[in-house]
Amino acid sequence: MSLSSRLSALAPALATLAPALSTLAPARALVGLAPGAVTLARLEGVLKPKLVAKRVLECGPAAPGEPWQGAAAALPAITAELKDLRCDVTVVLSNHFVRYALVPASATPMSEDEETAYARYCFAKVHGERAKAWEVRLSGADATSPRVASAIDPGLLAAIRASFPAGGRPRLLSVQPYLMAAFNRSEARRGRHSGWLLLVEPQRACLACIEDGRWTAVHNAKGDYEAPQRWGELLERERYVAGAAPGDVTVHARMPAPAQSGDWRFRVLGGPAPEGWSASDDRRLAMALCAA
């Protein structure tokens, strides 16, 4: 019997098991933190996730203070809605709140602490002494290739953890930068992909280049890039820095992506949308849903 025939034969059994799996598996709560809003998308189901609750809570950056403080102050209002629910929580952080650095491959093996220290050194070369206090994480585990490091203010991570205390029914599963959540959802996660990944938010664009499965550039730019005509301008500037040619660009943005602009070919970040999600009404949940 061929593999396809075997899978077809298993389909009725999987359909029968689906309700039981949905009952046994905890619900998922995906929370997005951005300067303008905190968003919540609550999902149930394993094989066919369903959007069962959603909320957008407007907020503004605290002034004076760090840009994430407004979102952190609004977070308890979201977590109050989850306090009696058994669910796994993933928090996705806007690129406004995250710094990125491309960490060169290491010529010699390093311990995990040495890798983190090396990444922190890469941040310090650009941002100075303040980088010493940041929470730093590295992508992947292959130190023989360039890796992307992310850094956030420790106060932001402390505020998130305080909102989901250990032992509570909502369980904080992970905190993910937007770039990493989108990368994990993209084709670049699977195999030796080449192309660009462009994430567009209000007053922010994050652009990464991947060649044959290897990170070659990452740039987190402040500015108005929501109009698609600005995407080509940004890509043209950054391709010379990265030494890369025009090509395919996977885009995650509120605005629909054009098919092509000059030598750039755009496509929307894929992945199945949960049942109950509306492309017209729920665009502001899109960042959080990258982690679905």
Give a structural overview.
- The chain has 292 residues and is an alpha/beta fold.
- The chain has a single domain, classed as 2-Layer Sandwich (Nucleotidyltransferase, domain 5).
- 29% of the residues lie in helices and 31% in strands.
- The protein contains seven helices and 14 strands.
- A six-stranded mixed sheet has the order 11-10-9-12-14-13, sandwiched between helices. The chain has a five-stranded mixed sheet with strand order 3-2-1-4-8.
- Strand 9 and strand 10 (204-211) form a beta hairpin.
- Helix 2 runs parallel beside helix 4.
- The longest helix is centred in the first third of the chain and has 22 residues, at 3-24.
- The chain is globular, with a radius of gyration of 20 Å.
Major sheet attributes = 6 strands, mixed
Quickly give the CATH architecture.
2-Layer Sandwich
Note the beta-strand portion: 25-35%
DSSP strand tally: 14
Approximately how much helix is present in the residues?
25-40%
Radius of gyration: 20 Å
Shape: globular
Mean pLDDT: 88
**Whole-number total of structural domains:** 1
The number of helical runs is 7
Break the fold down into its secondary structure elements and pairings:
Elements (H helix, E strand, L loop, with lengths): L2 H22 L2 E7 L3 E8 L5 E9 L10 H11 L7 E7 L5 E5 L8 H16 L7 E4 L8 E6 L1 H10 L6 E8 H8 L9 E7 L2 E8 L2 E9 L6 H14 L5 E5 L7 E2 L2 E5 L17 H4 L3
